[in-house]
Target: tRNA uridine(34) hydroxylase
Amino acid sequence: MSKNYRVLLFYKYQTIEDPDEFVTEHLEYCKSIGLKGRVLVGSEGINGTVSGTIEQTKKYMDYVHSLPGFEDVWFKEDLADNFAHKKMYVRHREEIVALNLEDDIDPHQITGQYLNPKEFHDALLDEDTIVLDTRNDYEYDLGHFKGAIRPEIRNFRELPNWVLENKDKFMEKRIVVYCTGGIRCEKFSGWMLREGFKDVGQLHGGIDTYGKDPEIKGDLWEGKMYVFDERISIPINHVNPSVVAKDYFDGKPCERYINCGNPECNEQIIASKLNEDKYLRGCSAECRRHPRNRYISENNLSTQEWEERLNAIGESLKNTHTA
Ligand SMILES: [Zn+2]
Model:
């Protein structure tokens, strides 16, 4: 079966004189061709992921390549069954990936050594090299490179502090970093060099490029890669694919992401359909009995049914004790 849609992932650090004007024109163009996705624009450059038919995405790439300074933007392309986004957004942001450093990094001035998939693969096999995942913990949990360090962060902005707190573990070693499409590593690896880490490499083009390399084919990647669109995850390892993610409720292998049914929590958790039903899509007893739990309304459960389902797992709507 042929896939008629495509998802594009791209970025470029390139000075934009008037980001607001750029945003207006960019959004207008995207809408005119019916593209969907999210593009962030700053005076430092652009960062985006968009989806559309083969024809729409072809037009978009031609458009971006026609913009002065963006002639060489590298688009990572993935075929898809449908749009991977619901709407089209183009937004002005101070930083196209928020790292919030007090003293910002210009990747054109300082950045880690670029490694192609083969070189990165060699680094993964080298015992004296430390591999650091620069993504968030929930991205890591769905899939990561074998042996990579998992920083305890929920957001990229927290990474520099985490590294400083754990400096002793890897200050004197060779370090290689990686992320989804490469953009997070551009400033981050530059920041590491500025902090005094001596040997820092980055996976050029990110995990996405690594998975498509005709020779490496994603070898040494475990699980799937988390993506920030409707697809949620995509395969990377085409040599010996595996599942590393675990069900939040019973710890069994699982790759299904859901959001907690409590709209005030909304925590992203991995759970099978079976456990989603059993635990009423709630990540905690409090979320399961939350008055606005979306699972209850979507399934039209009566208060009595709700109570019975909670009783089945030893809980109650009237639960007064605090967990
Ligand atoms: Zn919750």
